[in-house]
Structure formats: C-alpha cells, structure tokens
Amino acid sequence: xxxxxxxxxxxxxxxxxxxxxxxxxxxxxxxxxxxxxxxxxxxxxxxxxxxxxxxxxxxxxxxxxxxxxxxxxxxxxxxxxxxxxxxxxxxxxxxxxxxxxxxxxxxxxxxxxxxxxxxxxxxxxxxxxxxxxxxxxxxxxxxxxxxxxxxxxxxxxxxxxxxxxxxxxxxxxxxxxxxxxxxxxxxxx
Length: 189
Known about the structure:
By secondary structure, this protein is of the alpha/beta class.
C-alpha cells in the first residue's frame, strides 16, 4: 500500500505539535514509533501531537511527494529514520531540497534517527552531513542519534583514518541560493 500511515491524534486542535515521520522499512518505522510514543508520554499533559507517517519510497511518486512536502512544510518536527546502511536515494535528497525551499520563517527540528551499521559508517556520516546542512538551510535545528561504529571500539587506530570529513554534493539537491559556498562549508563537491 502506498498511502501514508496515520496515527490517532490526541487532539484535533491547531495547537497540536505537527510531526512528519519519514521511514524506510519496518525496523526503521518501529524505531520512529518508539520515539513518538516517548514524546507523547513525556508531554502527555502539556502538548498534543499530530503524527503523519510516510514511507521514504513513496517520495518517488510526484503526487504523494508533493503532499508530503506540504505536510512537512508546516511540521514542527521532521523525523527521518532511514536505511541502516545510511544511503539516501537521489529522489529522497531531491525531496529534501524541495522541502528546504518550502520553508520560510517556520522554525522546527529535524531529528535524524539513521542508525549506521559499522561497515557503512562513512556513508552514514555523509548522509548525516547532508541532513544537517538541509536542516540549516531550512532554518530547522538538527538532532541526531549518536552511534559509535564497532570498528572504533575494536581497532581505534583504523578508524582514525576514516574520521576525515566525507564530502557530499549538497549543491546538486539544493537550489543555488541555498547551497553552501564551498570555501565556507568545507564540504566540497
């Protein structure tokens, strides 16, 4: 089924905190669901939430991607729980560029729940850098999960070489006016 999954709202009021969740697969959805349940329990008496769930693969289709962009454009919190391998497909990066352009003065929080496996740490790091930059361009704060790759615990000298910043082509997905200047960002093409 390609329709977004909806959860029950605590309240149908305009004051509800708008949350859009992008997830990739069942494991990622369950991880995001745990975070959302924690939010509801933590703020039970103070804040209502309106959750909108979108599978990442649906962003390939123009109409659902546009609807997701509209919902994410009014979201207070945007949660992404991507493939543990840390790779974002080009259509997902393009969607994030569109989302960043749709932001004006709306402030919010982008929560990155991408959980890396040890073998793909450099790809995950590049994904996290991309998401951090997109959040900055959209005027959102960026919050990420922090995982230590297993290799750094087993052989810390090996990971020292892999700790250098991994460049990512943010400018391919962001409009020129949003793209960071290469000399300022340290994130070359």
